[in-house]
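subagent[fold] <- orchestrator: predict structure for attached chain, return tokens only, no commentary.
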Amino acid sequence: MTDDLTPVARFLFEAGTLKQTKRTGWWMAGVRDPESVAEHSWRTALIASIIAKLEGADPAQAAFLAVWHDSQETRTGDVNHLGKKYAPGADPAAVTADQVGGMPEILASTIRDLVAEYEAKDSPEAVCARDADKLECLIQGVEYKAQGYANAQRWIDNSRGRLITKTANALADAVLATDSLDWLRAALGELGEKPS
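subagent[fold] -> orchestrator:
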């Protein structure tokens, strides 16, 4: 490979800052130490692959979109919905173009295309990834509510109301009917189910 990968190396360090970048909306719900953008993005990618597979879309592409959906927040921070009322968000395409500057074009164009696809909301995979973003927020809200943060209900309700796909809506119903520790009870055989 003759391309200089230094800009890619710099971006990898930049991407790592998302592990410390907190999701700021949760502070309004009283959550003292909210999840990071990286934590949110990981589960969003997992959920996107599940929704896409069940919707007949490409699960790998949906997960790929979800991994990159908040990558611009290395430069902008996580601006919650209230903050966007006063300071409209930066253009994700413009931020991404700056982030990938100097990278090998085959990589830079792939990343620019991913962000554009996610933002356009046109492909089935983008719809699945966007639903995954909302469903992940709903699930996180359920978890925070179980930890005693009653104000998380607003995030649960808002996220639930923004889902589009049949699968995401059905998963939301299942999540809301499930205790956040039922997975552990099932694994231990405490729910009358046999562990697989």
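orchestrator: received. Logging for downstream: The radius of gyration is 18 Å. The chain is about 65% helix and 0% strand.
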